[in-house]
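Re-running the complex after MR caught last week's input typo. The corrected sequence lines follow. Everything else is unchanged.
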Amino acid sequence: MALEERDFPGVAFQLLVPAGAVNDPEGLEGASTLLEGWLWKGAGELDARGLAQALDALGVRRSSGAGLEYTAFAASFLPEVLEEVFRLYALLLTRPRLPEEGFEAVRSVALQSLLSQEDQPARKLFSELRRRVFLSPHGRDPLGREEDLKRATPKALREDFGRRYTPRGAVLAVAGGVSWERLLGALEPLALWEGEEVLYPPPLLASPERFALRRPTAQVQIGLVYPDVGPEDPGFYAARLALEVLSGGMSSRLFTEVREKRGLVYAVSAFPAGVKGQGLLMAYAGTTRDRAKETLAVMLQEMERLAEGVTEEELARAKVGLRTALVMGDESIRTRASSMARDLYMLGRVRPLAEIEARVEGTTLAEVNAFLRAHPYRDPWVGLLGEVEDV
Amino acid sequence: MALEERDFPGVAFQLLVPAGAVNDPEGLEGASTLLEGWLWKGAGELDARGLAQALDALGVRRSSGAGLEYTAFAASFLPEVLEEVFRLYALLLTRPRLPEEGFEAVRSVALQSLLSQEDQPARKLFSELRRRVFLSPHGRDPLGREEDLKRATPKALREDFGRRYTPRGAVLAVAGGVSWERLLGALEPLALWEGEEVLYPPPLLASPERFALRRPTAQVQIGLVYPDVGPEDPGFYAARLALEVLSGGMSSRLFTEVREKRGLVYAVSAFPAGVKGQGLLMAYAGTTRDRAKETLAVMLQEMERLAEGVTEEELARAKVGLRTALVMGDESIRTRASSMARDLYMLGRVRPLAEIEARVEGTTLAEVNAFLRAHPYRDPWVGLLGEVEDV
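Corrected-run output:
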C-alpha cells in the first residue's frame, strides 16, 4: 500500500487484486473477467442497482477490469466521501453476493466483449502475437476464450473468487488530498478481507516466429515483439531512453523514417508491453497491402540499427521529452495512483518521481550505447493481419 | 485569447485555426487535413526534420489535427521554453515552406488515414450518420474523400492556406505556470500573422431517416442522432444533467437497462456531439446480430422516456457526478486549455469553472423536467452497420 498526499480537492486510488488471465484456472480462461463483472451484481445489503446508485450518489468516477496479471479497480472522488467509498469497496471484496440470477447477463456481456475484438484488427493481431510469444499463460487474452466463457459455472467462479480475491498480493495506491491517518481509518472495513497467497506462474518465452492472419480488412496490420528488460533491470533507463529515440516524438526514428520520409503509414509506434519478470518491446504499424513489405522492412531495420547506438543529440532530446512527460503526467492524481500501483506490483515499492527523473538525467550516452550493443533488438516475433499471403 | 494562470511547473496551450471540414473548398474535402500535415514539412529556416528536432529538443509534447470546425494545435511544455515554443509556432503559421517535394508523402498519409477508417466499424457508422444528419457541410468527414485527396494540388492548397490560416477567428487558450505579461511577450512573433475573416456556413439539418450499411463485421453497430441544445441555450444545463441521468454512471438508465439488466451489449453510451449553432446528442451500442433489434428498441425507448422526466434522486446523483468530474478534469492543464478553447470558439468567452459548477448546482428538478417535456428526444436518425438486412 502506498499514499502520495497532495494539496488537491480530490482523491484517486487504484486497487490491484491478484486475479488476472495468467492465473485464470486451466480451462476457464476469462474467469477474471467474469468475476469482475459478476462482482458488481450486489454486495452486502445492496443489490446491483443499489450498489451502482450508492457509488454514483457519492460522485465516484470509477472503472474496473480484469487484465493479464491482475484485476484493477480505479476510483476518484471528493475527499469528504472517502470513508463511505472504502466501506462500499470493502463490501464488494468481502461480502459480494455473486447472485445466480445475475450470472447470465455477465456471461453475455463477456461474450460480446470478446466478439467485439473481431472488429478491431490491431487489437486482434496483438492478442494473437501474445499467444505465440509465451509458452506460459502470459500469452492469454484477458477477455478469455469463447468455449471457456460458455463452460463457466457460478459454482466454479465462486470457488475461484475465494481463491484469488485475496489481500495477499493485492496492491493499493492512493494519491490526493487525504492524510495517512485518515486513510488508515477509512481502510478499517478492509480488515475483514482475508485469503491465502495466490500463485503466479513464471513467464516463459517461446521461440520467435513469423505469421500472417488472412482477414478481409482494408489495411494490413503489422506487429513486432522483442524481448526487453523490465524496471528491475539495471539497464531499464537506458532501454527507456532508447525507446524514446525510436518512437518518442515527431523527430523519433520510426516516425521520421516510416511516416515523414516515406509516407508509408498514418500510425507507427513502439511501446513497452512487458509482464512482471519479462520485459517486452512491441511495435505497430497499419498500412496498405502494397506497402506492407516496405513498411515491415523499414521497421525491422530501424530496430536493428539501434545496436549501432544513438547520438548525443538524440539522447538529449529523449531526456527532455521524458522529463516533460513526467511533469505533465504527474499533475493527474489518477495517472499517479495508477503508476504507483504498477510500481508496487512490479517492484514492491513506489519509485518517487524525483528518483525517476534523476535516473533518466543520470544515464550517460556511453551507458545507453553499451546497453544497445549488449541487447540488440533482433529476431522479433512478426505478425501481419489483413489481405496478405505470407510474411 | 484566454489565460488561466496556475501555480504549476508546466504550461499547456490549445490553438484553433479556422480551417475545418465545414469550410474545406468545394471538391477539395480533406484540404484541412492535408494542410495540417503539410505544415510540418518545414517553416522559415527549418526543414521538416529541423522543425521536429527543434520542438522535441524543447521537450514539447504536442498533437495537432484538422477536425470538423477547425484545426487544433495542442502543446504542453515546461515554462522556461515558452518564448522559443511560440517562436516556432509563429514560424509555422506565418512562414510555412509548404514544399512541393514533401507533398506526396502528406497525401499518402492522409489516404492511409482515410482507409484505416474502413477497419473501424463504429467510426465508419458515425461518419455516415453525420453525412445524413446535415444538409450543410457539417456532415463532412474531416478525413476527406478519396477522390478529393487525389485531386488536391500544391497550388490549390497554398491558396487555401492563405485564405483559412488566419488570426481572424483563430482562438488561443493557455493554462499553467505563466503570467499574462510573460505570455504577451512570448506571443510577439505572432504579430506578423495576418489574414481575412473566414466564412463559416450555418448548420442545416436534413430530415431524420433510418439506414443500414451491410458489412461483414462480427458485431452490429447501432448509432442514433437527436437534435439537442448547445451551450448558448438557456436549457443547456438541464440537457446536460438529463444526459448524465441517461448515460453518466453505472446507475444511469442506458447502462442499467441495456447492459446490466439485459446483458445486451458490452458498450452503450450517449454523448453530446454538436457543432456551433446546432447541438446534437448521439447514442451508440455494439451488439450481436440477433440482439440488435432488442437493443435498438430499448435505446429508443429510454431516450423517449426522458420526456416523462427524471426523479429527484437521479438528479442529485447527476449533480454530484458532474461536480466530481469537474474537479477531476480540472486538474489537468491540458484538459483545461482544451475546454477553454472550445468555449472561446462556441461562446466567444471562457466559462469559469465556478460558473459551470453554480449553473449545474442551481438547475432545479422542475427546470430539468420542463426542459425534457418541451424538448423530447424523438424521431432520431438511426444507423446500423453490420450483417443486417434493414432497420
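None of the earlier attempt is carried over here. Chain B touches chain A through 72 residues (CB under 8 Å). Residues 210-386 of chain B form a domain with the Cytochrome Bc1 Complex; Chain A, domain 1 fold (CATH 3.30.830.10).
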